[in-house]
Each structure stands twice: as structure tokens, then as C-alpha cells.
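Contributing: when you submit paired examples, paste them exactly as shown. First protein:
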Amino acid sequence: MTVGQRIAQRRKELGLSQEALGERLGVSRQAIYKWESDAALPEIEKLVNLSREFSVSIDWLLGQEDETREPQELTPEQLRMVEEIVGRYLAAQPEQESLPKPEPVAAPKRRRWPWVLAALVLAGVFWSLFGRLEQMKRDYYSLQSSIEFVNQSVNQQINGITSRVEDVLQSQNSLTAEQSAEVTATDYRANTAAISARAVPRTYVEGMTVEFIVASAGETITVPGELGDGLAFTGTADVPLSDEITVSVALVTGEQRETQVIDQFYGLYELSFPYVEITDTAVANEGDGWIASRTVDVILFDQQGEPTDEVEVKLGLFRDRKLVQWYAPVEEADRGDGWKQFALEEMIPLDLNVPYCLAALVTDEYGRTYMYTNGEMICTDQSSAQSVSETYSSDPADWGL
């Protein structure tokens, strides 16, 4: 059971409503509801109060206690009786030792009961000690769980406060009261994107001018902002389409120029291409060594995730990202639903401890090219190979073509 389910179960067993329990704990009914629905966890102080109200341990509330185990310790009354018996027994020992020796036959019968009693007393003492040790162990684990819970709660509160402080500081230090940027148009044939930006200065001074700076694909384009209603400056820049575009605003007042980032866009260039899935790896083992996979299936998808055949694709075997051999398309295997098959015309043995991969050169309908790969493989010996985790360039110029 969760913490919330345990609280709800115990509350119902005691015949308390959420409102009544909230009054006892000094919290609202909504807080009890959030605890029982696991939308929030009680603070450590409330957990202690809950354990007292419910007559259960904090361990039980947190689900750490073994519910099937019965506590194994003597009651205070039983302990008192054991101590009294032990005291009487010890006080009687010197008198018994000073008595004359009884008849050999009768001695065992008269002296057996003290040893039995002592054994029982010692068993009781050990049983009590064992029970207390077990209770101490449970208390230790309970304390450990409570400390861990407190640490988590404190860390969450600190992180929340830190985030709020950062937001406040960012808001206070912001040059703008409002700002935004968006991609309003793309021209895939020209490989460009139109970025529109808007900014309202936090403090406007008569004669202030605004510039929007857009950085993309190593180019930086600056456009002047036009002042409109509500002291809002707007501007649009046509920039190269790339996978990282940064939009900034500069507020110029006299000789003073202040700049801050408005927004950033990632993956726009990659997402503008069809998606290629290479279903096989570059390496295959035929028992006498590693060779390149002889046939490979490729699936093509458009930007909406639907299979497409409107894309030109070439598949190659690459060694250390340098072309070894292009695969030939198997025309009779083309199913017309985005699936294509490629094959090598000859067997290509592979070297050990050198990275190989399959990579697809994609040319879209606008003539743009892009490289896809499913990752490199290294054959470490005659029977095993391992994959290489690395980020690869999508620029065909980086693939030795």
C-alpha cells in the first residue's frame, strides 16, 4: 500500500472523517485528501502527529515495517516479576551452599528446580533482550527512513525555492516586459526560415531603438524593430535553416546597448527531412570471420511519419566514416510502401577493432542532402562485436564522399 492508502485505511478504522482528522492535526480537509490520494506527502511533523493519532509507527505509515511480525518483548509487569524471581534466587544461593550435603540420591531432585527456574529466568531475560534489540533495530530503521524522508522533503523544497528565486531574478533583471519569437515560414528549396520576433521594453525611453539578432548556421542577421501599439517592437528575419537558431533582442538608448536572448530553436533542419530507418547492422558473422551485411532493409517516412517513396536514398558501408562500398538497390524487393532493400554484389571481409557502420545518403525533393546512420559497430574478436555510442554529423561532407 502507498502512504496515502495507509492513512485512509487507518482513518476509516478509527471512524474519522477527513475533516475531523484535519482538525486534530491542524490541517485542512484538502490536505488530508491530497495525502490520501498520494498527490502530496505529509511533512515529517505531520507524520509524527499521524503516528500518534493512529497509534502506529512512522515505519508503518511509510510502508517500512513488517506487518506480519508480532513484537517479541515482555510487558513491564512480566519484567518486574522476572527481576523479583532472579533477586530471590540470587539471595538464596549462599544459604543453599552452606547447608550440609543431602543424601546423594535425593540431591538431584531437591536441586533440579533452581536450575530449571534459572534456565527459565535466563530464557525470559534473553527473550526480553532479543525483543528489545529487535525493537531498537526497528527504531533505527524508522529513524533512518525518517531522516531520508526529511532529506528528500528538504531537497524538494530547496529546489522549488531555488527555481522560484531564479524565476524572480530573471524577471527582475529582464530587459523586456514581454518577448516572443516564432518560425512563421520555411522555404526548403532555398533552405531558409523566417523568424518573427516581438519585444516590449520593461522601461521605454523616448528615442529608444530595438534590433533583433538571429544567429543560424554560422551567420548572424540583424533587423531593426518597428515600434507598434503598446510600445511593442516587432521584426522578421530570413535566416539559413539549421538545427540551432538563437534569437536575441538589443535595446539601444543613446550610447547604451543592452542585449538578451529571446528564444532558441533546435532540430528544425533535421526535422525538415524525411526519416530513414536502417533495420540491420553493418556487420555479420558467417563462422569464419566478420563480413559486411550482404542485404539491408531501409524504411522511409515523411515528416508526418507516413511511409513514403518520394525520396532518393543511397546506402553505403563506411569504415571509420569513410566510404568503403555503396550497396546496390534490389528493385524486385521494393514493396512500394517505403520499404527498400539493398545488397552487396560481393563479400567484404571486415577488420577487427575498426568501426564500421551503415549510412544512408538522403536527397529530398528540394535537392538537399542529409546523412542517416544507425551507429557504428566494432568487431573485437572472431565471435563478438560491440556498438559505439557517439554523435554523428548529418553533413555529407563529413563522411568522405
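Second protein:
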Amino acid sequence: MYLFYCPDIETKQTLSEEESGHCVRVLRYSVGDEILITDGKGSTYTARITNPHPKHCDFEILSRETQERHHAFHLHIAIAPTKNIERMEWAIEKCVEIGVDEITPLLCRFSERKQLRTDRLEKIILSAAKQSLTPFLPVLHELTPYDEFVREQAKLKQQNFIAHCYKDEKRFLKDEIERGRDVLVLIGPEGDFSEKEVADALALGFIPVSLGNSRLRTETAAVVACHTAVLINE
């Protein structure tokens, strides 16, 4: 069954114009058909269509089910956007499918992309979440300066990791993650973090890690980090 998204479902039993169009025009749902809806906060609803309008499809709620998260920790991936935006979009889509909870695009010293359209990325996140039938919609932040971000994250009670390619002493991420603890992994731009950015993160208590023996593209590294954290916590 296809999953629809309605964040304010408890107060308004009407799908958005985009969701209504997909429901009525594309999928051809009609009066009396049952659909599955999520609020993106952990609840799924079985509903019946009462007015199949292609711009404001109305429904009535039949039942509600609240689900627990698939993993008992919070996973935050902070990644410097790639020059080719399609690679960034692919990485975000796959991280959502795997189980990321929060995503922060980073503006780093060697970032080749200085601006980012988060509205398009929001749509990709929503599409990936619905495709995966997950009732939890990951949080996407605006493009954030690196220095500001690491200072704020260092204050939180979580495991903070920085994945970089310098030949410093590092252990594999899979060997450093503690089950059940919240995790943040920093993924640098295509030119890697600057030496100063790495040093600043280490001074704030971030743990330097490797994602494997191969040198990975930025988007691949994000997916590998996400999958590693989720797998360790399964």
C-alpha cells in the first residue's frame, strides 16, 4: 500500500495539493478506498477517502498505530554538499532509506558548493521516507558553517566522529560506535576537511575515524557511515 504524508492529520483530514494529485490523478483512488497516511512523527493512520478531489482529497480516519523507531539511538549525518548536486541528492535519499534521523549540510573550507536548495532536498527526503514506509521523517537543516556547527554539537551528550582522509591515527568507525548512544558523523567535501578543521574538531572531543581502506567519494562516505551506525545498533 502506498504511504501518504499529512503532518497535521489530527486537526485537518485533507491531503496537501501535491499528495492529493498523486492520490487521485496518478493512483486513481476513489470514494471509499482505504489509504495509509503518516504524520512523519511515528504514527500511521488507516483512512477512507470521502472526497477524492485532485487538489484537496478529504478522508476520515479509521485507525491509528504508533510505531517505535527501528533503532534506539539518534543518527545525525553532517555532510558537505557535493559540487554535482545529484550526488548529494542520491546520498540523502539512501541515508533516509537506511535510517538517518537528522541531516545537516556543512559549509567547509574546501566546499565547492556554497549554496543549497533545501526545498528540493525536503521533497527527496519525503519521497524516500514514503518509499521505505517509515513513519518518521528525518530533520533537514539549512547549510551551516562548519565552525559554528562543531562547537554546538560538542556540547551534546553523543558520540561525535569526524571521518577524514589524512594519514593520522584513526580506527574504523565500526569499532568506535557504542551501541545505544546517539551518533554524529562529519563527512567532508570532495577536497576533504582542511587540516585546521580536523584539528578544531579533535580539540572539541571529536573522534577521528576511517570508513574503510578505500578512499570514498563524499556521497559514498555518507551512506557507508549511515549504514555502519545503523548496522552496529541492530
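If you have annotations for the second protein, write them as plain sentences, like these:
The first strand starts at residue 3 and ends at 5.
The chain has two domains: 3-66, 75-232.
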